[in-house]
Amino acid sequence: MKPAPLAYARASDLGHALALWREAGPDARLIAGGQSLVAGLNLRLADVPALIDISRIESLCGLGCEGGTLRIGALTTHAEIGRSEPVARHAPLLTEAAPLIAHPAIRTRGTLGGSLAYADPAAEWPACMLALDAVIVVQSETGERRIPAADFFLGLFETALQPFEILVAVEIPVIAAGRRQAIRELARRSGDYAMAGLAAAGTPSDGGLRDVTLAYFGLGSTAILAAGAMRILDQGGDLEDACAALDDDLDPADDLQASATMKRHLAKVLLRRVVAALSPVMSTA
Length: 285
Ligand SMILES: Cc1cc2nc3c(=O)[nH]c(=O)nc-3n(C[C@H](O)[C@H](O)[C@H](O)COP(=O)(O)OP(=O)(O)OC[C@H]3O[C@@H](n4cnc5c(N)ncnc54)[C@H](O)[C@@H]3O)c2cc1C
Prior knowledge:
Number of strands: 14
Strand content: 25-35%
Radius of gyration: 19 Å
Shape: globular
Bound molecules: flavin-adenine dinucleotide
Number of helices: 13
Structural class: alpha+beta
Helix content: 25-40%
Largest sheet: 5 strands, antiparallel
């Protein structure tokens, strides 16, 4: 199927994109890599009168590290993140996550900003942003807003982005000495969206872990921090107690890939695997 007829304009810079959007009205959509949006348009899932192409806006490209913060532009592709040396050094979770996203062709075009704005509950980047305590930077005609990842993902394909706001970058604290990050997921086939996944960080300490973040994906309407399990691990509790706490932390629904019961089981499998990666001592204790 082909999309319904729509208008198209390519923005030369951020100000131009915001002006074009205002002129086209709130139902117009930004297009970045097009890897999610075009499929939706072809299936006619949304009535979109106009597309504003932001893919050539230079200020949204590239990444850099300054003052303990890694800043990644919204147009940085999954593939660029995956092969970036600064990302590998300062946020290795993202290096590990990138190859889990779809297939090479999609990773070459799909962007970080597009993935976060789309907010698919089974996507890797939203969970990574939660696990790394990232800040999402958005821009409108009235100025900039900086939104902690924990406040950005509101529900199924729903974010804190307001009409006429463009996601411009994410800012991530660089990994501290001794801290570890890991991601594990279970998918039916390599490249598929995960049935269940877990992005995590923690600091090995006294045979356990402290300052643990556990961000699950594919297990609810959005990426979720497993607060109860995090608390138990932080307090030096037992791994199996943390697994049990997931029963309260997560409330997955049946979907086409797995039943809710199966998903709860997979969440525990993933926690054991992630803890083994973050703290080999703890997993064998
Ligand atoms: C077959 C297939 C398999 C896939 N598998 C996975 C997977 O396993 N894991 C995964 O995470 N993803 C997967 N994806 C999705 C892919 O990662 C997309 O690239 C990504 O979700 C969207 O990025 P994009 O740049 O293509 O965004 P687009 O498709 O261009 O846009 C997506 C949405 O975000 C909005 N948007 C884009 N950029 C901005 C911005 N800067 N500010 C505000 N709004 C913006 C658009 O208006 C649109 O609503 C898959 C896609 C396909 C087609």
